[in-house]
Amino acid sequence: MASSLQVDINQGFEQCNTECRCVSLDRKKLHETLRKQLGDDSMYRMLTEERPHLFAESLVFVDETHIRRQFEIIAAIEKVIATPAYQQRVLAYAPDTAKFIPKAHGVFFGYDFHLSPEGPQLIEINSNAGGALLNTVLARAQRACCDSAAESQSPEQVFMAMFIEEWQAERGQQPLHSIAIVDQNPATQFMLPEFLLFKKLFEQNHINTVICDPSELEYRDSALWHEGMAIDLVYNRLTDFGLESQTLKPLREAYLASAVVVTPHPRAHALYADKRNLVILTDEAALRDLGIAEETRALLLESIAHTICVHKEDAEALWAARKRLFFKPAKGYGSKAAYRGDRVTKRVFAEITQGNYVAQTLVKPSEQQLKVENEIVDLKLDLRQYVYKGQSQLTSARLYQGQTTNFRTPGSGFAAVVVVAGGNN
Q: 50, exposed or middle or buried, with CB in 10 Å at 0-12, 13-18, 19+?
């Protein structure tokens, strides 16, 4: 069940986003929450001084009908992904590591939506979506605003149960002794605070935990090791989704030998998050060919931003239509090397047509107004559903300026979501 704030008000969510310019983030409460969780002030400084735009100051209001619609879209996509015909189609262009079939499902899929006048539009799926645990901290640091209620449930144990379920899928009732949270040079990563929060959560559940670079791992004696500790499970935050680079050889070999549980894993990315998959999910002929039912086809075609693969021979037509398109690398993540067509230069466009890109119909994000340094600024927003096995665990929003989310501009960052009951949309 999705965790979010709930409120029952008469005005619609759009009016709330326009008229409610309250600063809802209670920094004193945030400080107290982090001190309670970690026992010192280092995390608060890391978030507020080193990453001042990670948490937005305001709430985001969303009509409950839009949330329900997002759940329906997610269910429809999950139904397609479960079909052998779809899996055969997408695995044909996946890395070899995706052919390996683990029993673990994969944690923290992120379904990202824009709210268009026609309703929620899915713009992408991520297989190792960050921010879930940070958003639980953010939700607890909100002051009362517009009659919003308190968080309906605590997600930390839901997340913990998810990791245990991943482990038990592979190892049954064997005890889980150790977890490695793995990313490239984690000390320099923008999401380091979340790694530290996960480390604390795992340790509170009596699991030895390290945060490490993949180069620190060694595969020997049928086990994956970090220094003198055998690693049972890897919480994978790497963006080499196929574990293909040479530096990942120990992790890759241990994974393919079933010597360690890895989540999320290469197959999860191949089935869900390769952006070429959206081409199939928005192509009626392809969906028909896969045997997808008419009702499901109609929902997907209405609710996912139409996506095509970029081919060099289509360059002239794509350039002419560029103002209505958003270009994304097929294996990309976040906003890396992604470009709005109306802002792309001819030089960059030439590179796009040479690379492995998709072109997606531009779905303009909705907007939120906020007072920043005594000025009213317009911020764009998108919504993310954190999903495990087709069920949403958490609903969050991201506020930003510019063409993509970047956590760099005043007023931007993760924002707590208030679900508006009784709206008119």
A: exposed
